[in-house]
Amino acid sequence: MDTINKIIVSIGKAPVVEAPEILGALENVLKVHNNADTDKSTILSDNKGKAGIYQWKHKESNKMYVGSAVDLSKRLSKYYSTSELKRIDNYICRAIIHHTHSSFSLLILEYIDISTLSMKHEKRLFQGSNTILIV
Question: Residue 101 pLDDT more than 80?
Fold first, then answer.
């Protein structure tokens, strides 16, 4: 794995914090899409109706953004909509607009069976903006 300087976590409205212990969780990747532009249709169809954790990685800088979604296909499709990217206007959306999808790989880190989660854990995992930015 590439050297990572800092891991930043933002959960909902909680303050942004560094969290180096998350690094180990990024080592077991389920699927890798090396070109988020040419792999768009596969990305959306393979993840339809699946909950999980995903990672965008800028190929040149190795900066990463990790997010989670109850429906990965629905969440990931927003990253392919220019109007949604502009509306959401966060770090990864601005980076995709600036560098284009072909500059990113998309990794599926984990699928989650939400039927096994308690309501409390499901809300914590997927509520609001659960994101990790690795720079």
Answer: yes
